[in-house]
Amino acid sequence: MSDYDLQRSHWVGQKLTQKLGPEYISTRSGGGGKLSYIEGWKVINIANEVFNHDGWSSSVVSLQQDYCDQLDPQGQRFNVGFSAIVRITLRSGAYHEDVGFGQMDNARGKGMAFDKARRFAGKQVCADNHEQCKKEAITDGLKRALRYFGNLTGNCVYDKNYTSEISKIKVQPVRAS
Question: Has residue 140 been placed in a domain?
Fold first, then answer.
């Protein structure tokens, strides 16, 4: 390993131990209280900064529809769920993988259920609505796999003491570039 590679590896290791600033952490209600999370685009930007844009990759190991339950006899209401196993691989060959989940409950029709992720992301609706709930599962899996590399890639949001303290700090939100 060259001196540069050793220095770079040390720098990356140090960066990954740092915790996210409050501008990177979002909250939503759920599970009987507030849940902290990092948005997909934010953690991708962080991974690009730490590992370089060509220093990491993601792949979908598996993707499956877990359920599509019709809720009414007329076939107009559905609950749909997908799971995805996503692998993050670094240039060095190190990798982590985890499972993500995407769902929509009580949707008006299967198309609406599969369309959820794109609508909530504020983007144009794709013609193939089946892909949208899958996108949510893949993004969730990507975020969960990246967190195994360290605090800076999202692991710190699982620390209740940290998120409790960081939520008290008011900051301007980070904007997509």
Answer: yes
Instruction: Give the model confidence (pLDDT) of 13-69 as tens digits.
Output: 999 999 999 999 999 988 788 899 999 999 999 999 999 999 999 999 999 999 888
Domain count, the chain: 1
Residue with tokens 């008290």: 168
The sign of the CA dihedral 159, 164, 166, 171 is: positive
Q: Where are the alpha helices (DSSP H) in 18-106?
A: 40-51
Picking from 161, 165, 169, 149, the residue whose alpha carbon sits closest to that of residue 44 is 149
In this prediction, what percent of the chain has a pLDDT beyond 70?
A: 84
pLDDT at res. 114? 62
Rounded to whole angstroms, the Cα distance separating 61 from 138 reads 10
